[in-house]
Amino acid sequence: MGGFLMAVPVVLPFAFAALIGSKRYACKGCVNTIAGTAVILNLIFLVLILGMDFQKSIEIVRLNENLRIFLDIDRIGALFAVLASSLWLFTAFYSMGYMKHEEGQTRFFAFFTATLGVTSGIAFSGNLMTLYLFYELLTIVTYPLVIHTQNEEAFESGRRYLAYSFGGAALVLAGMALLYSISPNLDFAAGNMAYAPEDRATLLYAFMMLFIGFGVKAAVVPLHSWLPSAMVAPTPVSSLLHAVAVVKSGVFSIIRVVFFIFGADAVRDINGQIYAGAFVAVTILMGSLLAMTHDNLKKRLAYSTISQLGYILLGVFMLNEKALEGGLLHLVNHALIKIVLFFCAGAIYVNTHKKKLSELKGIGKSMPVTMTCFSIAAVSLIGIPPTSGFVSKWYLAIGSIGAGRVWFAVVLLLSAVLTAAYLLPIIIAAFFSSDECDSGSTLVKKEAEGKMLAPIVMLTAVIVLTGIFPSIVLGFIERIVSDISF
Fold first, then answer.
1. How is 416-436 classified by DSSP, letter by letter?
2. pTM for the full predicted model
3. 150 by DSSP, 3-state: which?
4. Is 442:366 a contact under the CB 8 Å cutoff?
5. What gap in Å lies between CA 203 and CA 195, rounded to an integer?
6. For residues 376 and 463, is the Cβ–Cβ distance under 8 A?
7. Residue 68 — φ and ψ, nearest 5°?
8. How far apart are the C-alpha atoms of 207 and 203, rounded to whole Å?
9. pLDDT digits (tens, 9 = 90+) for 137-179
C-alpha cells in the first residue's frame, strides 16, 4: 500500500492530463477546473506521503541483479518534489488568467499537468537509470509547451531544444554505460563509490559525460543557447522552465551524480570539481554579461537564470558542507525569485503588450503592485541583505573560502555587481524615469487580473519571509547535507 501511495504524485498528474486532453472535457471551465484540481491533489498527496511512516520505495522493473527501475524518497528528493509541486500550484492559477489570452489552452494544460508528473518522477528516482528515463521523458512532455505558439520562431526554438536535450541525454547514457563498466551499482546512496586506482581515467570520462549531459538542461555555458530561444513560449512556460521544471531538474541531476553516485572523495580524486568548476565559473560570468546586452525583458531574465544556476553548481563543486548548503538554499531561493520575475513580465505583457525594457519607462506608476513585487524579487536576486538571496550567497562565499578557492568568492562578488547592473536599471526606469510613457494611451492603467496578481503577491511575501527567517528552509537543508559524506 505504501509503495502505491508514493507513486501517486508521479501517476496522478498523467491521469488528469489524459482527462484534460479528452474531448469530453474540452470546455475552458472544465480544463481549468481539472488542472487546478490536479495540482492541489498532487500537493496534498505529497505532503501526506512525506508525513507517513512507511518504507518509501517501490520497485517497478528489475532488469538484472544490479540494474532496476525504482522510486525512492529521500530528503533531497522530498525537497525538490515539494518545491516543484508548490510552485506548480501557483503557476496553474496564474496560467488560468494568462492563457485566456492565448490559443490552445487544452493542449497547454494537458502537457503542463503531465510535466508535473515527470518532475515528481525525477525527484523520486532511486537510481541513475530511473533518473535517465524521466529525464528523457521531460524533454518529450515539455516540447509541446516550448512550441505552443506554433509559429516559425517557436518551431525553430523547439528544434534547438530537442537537439540540445537529446544530445545531452545521449551523453548521459554513454556516461552511465561507462560508469556501469566500473561500478555496476547505479543506486543513489550518500557515500563514496568503490573503484580500482587504474580506473581513475575512465571514471573521469564518465563523470564529465554525465556532467555535460545533465548540464545541458542546467544551461551550462556553452550548452545554454536553447534556453533564451525558448522564451518564445508563453510566460507560464518560461516560469516553469526557469524556476523548477527543466533547469532545476538538470541541476538536481548533477547533485545526484556528484554526491549520490560518485561521492565527494571520488570527485576530488579524479579532479572532477576542477574541470566542472571551470565551466561553472564561465557560466556565472557569461550569463550576467549576456543579460546586460538584451533589451527584451524575458531574454534578460533568461540569461540571468543561466548565471544564477552557476551559483548553485558552484555550491556543489566546492565539495564542502557550507557551500552545498548555500547551493541548495539558492536552488530554493532562485526558484521563488525567478518565478516572481517571470510572472511580473507576463503581467506586464498581458496589460501592455510590451516586451522590451526600453518601452517600459514609467510602468511602475501604472502597475505599482506588480513592479514593487518585481523590485523585491530583483533586490533579492542581487543578494542585498537581509534578503533570501543574500543568505544563500553568504553560505556560498563561506564555502568557497573554506575550500581554499578565494577566486570563486571573487567571481560571486563580481557576478552580484553585474546582476545589479542588469536589474536595477529596470526598477529605476519603472519608477523614476522622467519619460512617463504611462501618461499616454499605450499603457493600461491597472494591474493584471486577480488570478495573475495574487500568485505574484503571495510568492513575493514568501521571498520576504524566507529572507527574514531563513531557518524555515535552511534547517531542512542542513539535515540533507548532514547525511552526505565530504
1. HHHHHHHHHHHHHHHHH-S--
2. 0.92
3. coil
4. no
5. 9
6. yes
7. -150, 165
8. 6
9. 999 999 999 998 888 988 999 999 999 999 999 999 999 999 9
